[in-house]
From TrEMBL:
Its EC number is 1.11.1.6. Keywords: Heme, Hydrogen peroxide, Iron, Metal-binding, Oxidoreductase, Peroxidase. Pfam families: Catalase, Catalase-rel. GO terms for biological process: hydrogen peroxide catabolic process; response to hydrogen peroxide. Homodimer. It catalyses: 2 H2O2 = O2 + 2 H2O. The lineage of its organism: Bacteria, Pseudomonadati, Pseudomonadota, Betaproteobacteria, Burkholderiales. This is Catalase. It is an enzyme of class 1 (oxidoreductase). Belongs to the catalase family. Heme binds at residue 335. Its cofactor is heme. The keyword Oxidoreductase applies.
């Protein structure tokens, strides 16, 4: 028999009854087992994520099937057949932890690869673009996706007020209200690194890269009525679907691809290649196969392995790098900082976040330091100890040339926020266009007319039929909207 103990290991004789002064008397303060249970219970919930609060996770493997060493010397891609253990977390964005998995929302697509040179986190979405191109607007945008500070209700007025004054959002809004705004679980959706990153090869040559994870289960989306029904009957639908598939041996898989752009090409594109609201045309920058990603193992404890999982695009390894993407630059700070607040300063040492290679750092102490804290080793550098960790110039990243004046440049000036959104609309079938229009009309129905008119003008600039059909659906004259 396994003996029940307190958190300090003392055997527990009675876990059914509090210690009292007599059978009917008051509970005694000395009942440390009762106090410990209540105190721990009061602290069982760490703050939920500000965004991506509702999510599911699983372990898996990245397997390389094609040679990309001409682009990168990163260890996971060193040779064909190489396998790297990894962990994935999928999520909705705006909802609270108890919200429904089938809400209309982008889906987070966060990946952690445990490589021989440390952890590499790729933190993206199920869409290749986003609502913003400058991180200074991120808090404002997320506030519109949360609850009205007066009514504590979700507010379409807040959302469309912001979007209608942020035309760079149009591409993502079109995606969100299309059929792909309601993916059928997590297994039947694509994933994207979304941002522009960089690859660096053994010769120190840099290229820009977009990461794509294409579901091999096939794209499958929910009809709005089905999504609403499931939200009321099985709000954990996507969690259940992912967990049961893996438990039954039906391991979900994704085809891993990249798009590559040289530094010279980046100076010649008609759009800013570091703009998160833009895609790179596949005709100009075709997909290059890299490998497959397979999820094959469920977590044993949701809190320890999914709720405490922490991803940040700042987790990078040699051969991989960043870009001048303004949203990416903001996330490099914000994600790590969020984990320091939510989980604690030693979050990277938790089992799900811990690198699978030795970690040698001079960081010490902090709340919940649960290892040996590096014992008596020195906690400063430089030092006189030959065996203490030292920097290694071999891993220096190739310099990136930057120039120009430091200023707050208007990211909307001279930027085309309409062509790609219009192209997406024109790519849709008639049925997909009709679904998009109906979804937007339904969402905008309660929005004040001045906001409706402003947003319709954006739709019309993307494609006149796009705006005209929404105006008609809202009972507004097209000429007024124009």
């Amino acid at each position: 028999m396994t003996i029940l103990t307190t958190a300090t290991g003392a055997p527990v004789a009675d876990n059914q009854n509090s210690r009292t002064a007599g059978a009917r008397g008051p509970v005694l303060l000395e009942d440390f087992h009762l106090l410990e249970k209540l105190q721990h219970f009061n602290r069982e919930r760490i703050p939920e994520r500000v965004v991506h609060a509702k999510g599911s996770g699983a372990y898996g493997v990245l397997e390389v099937t094609h040679d990309i060493t001409q682009y990168t010397c990163a260890s996971p891609f060193a040779q064909i057949g190489k396998k790297t253990e990894m962990f994935a977390r999928f999520s909705t964005v705006g909802g609270e932890k108890g919200s429904a998995d089938t809400d209309r929302d982008p889906r987070g697509f966060a990946l952690k690869f445990y490589t021989e040179q440390g952890n590499w986190d790729l933190v993206g979405n199920n869409t290749p673009v986003f609502f913003l191109r400058d991180g200074i607007k991120f808090p404002d945008f997320i506030h519109t996706q949360k609850r009205d500070p007066k009514t504590n209700l979700k507010s379409p007025t807040m959302m469309f007020d912001f979007w209608s004054q942020s035309p760079e959002s149009l591409h993502q809004v079109t995606t969100l209200f299309s059929d792909r705004g309601l993916p059928d679980g997590y297994r039947h959706m694509h994933g994207f690194g979304s941002h522009t990153y960089s690859l660096i090869n053994a010769s120190g040559e840099r290229v820009w890269v977009k990461w794509h994870f294409l579901t091999l289960q096939g794209i499958r989306n929910l009809a709005p009525a089905d999504a609403a029904r499931i939200a009321g009957t099985d709000p954990d639908y996507a969690q259940r679907d992912l967990f049961n598939a893996i438990e039954n041996g039906d391991f979900p898989r994704w085809r891993v691809c990249i798009q590559v752009m040289t530094e010279a090409q980046a100076t010649q594109t008609p759009f800013n290649p570091f703009d998160l609201t833009k895609v790179w045309p596949h005709g100009d920058f075709p997909l290059i196969d890299v490998g497959t990603m397979t999820l094959n193992r469920n977590p044993q404890n949701y809190f320890a392995e999914v709720e405490q999982a922490a991803f940040s695009p700042s987790a990078i390894i040699p051969g991989l790098g960043f870009s001048p993407d303004k949203m990416l630059q903001a996330r490099l700070f914000a994600y790590h900082d969020a984990h320091l607040y939510r989980v604690g300063t030693n979050y990277q040492a938790l089992p799900v976040n811990r690198a699978h290679v030795p970690v040698n750092t001079y960081q010490r102490d902090g709340s919940m330091r649960f290892d040996g804290n590096f014992g008596g080793e020195p906690n400063y550098e430089p030092n006189r100890y030959a065996q203490a960790p030292k920097q290694d110039p071999r891993f220096a990243e190739t310099p990136l040339a930057v120039d120009g004046y430091a200023d707050r440049f208007d990211h909307r000036a001279g930027n085309d926020d309409y062509t790609q959104a219009g192209d997406l609309f024109r790519l849709m079938s008639d049925d997909q266009q009709t679904l998009l229009i109906n979804n937007l009309v339904g969402a905008m129905g309660s929005v004040p007319q001045d906001i409706q008119l402003r947003q319709i003008e954006h739709f019309r600039r993307a494609d006149p039929r796009y705006g005209d059909r929404i105006a008609e659906g809202l009972g507004l004259k097209t000429s007024v909207a124009a």
